[in-house]
Amino acid sequence: MLNRTSLWLLPFLAACAVQAPAPPALPDCPPAAEQPALVRVSAAAPEIREEVRYATSDNFTGAPLPGYETPAALLRPAAAEALARVQRDLEARRLGLLVWDAYRPVRATLAMVDWAERSGNEWVLEEGYVARRSNHNRGNTVDLTVVDLRTGAPLDMGTEYDHFGVASHTANASGAVLRNRRILVDAMAAEGWENYAQEWWHFTHPSDDGALDIPIGCYAGRGS
Ligand SMILES: [Zn+2]
Question: Which of 24, 28, 89, 182 yields a CA-CA distance of 20 to 30 A from 10?
Answer without folding.
Answer: 24
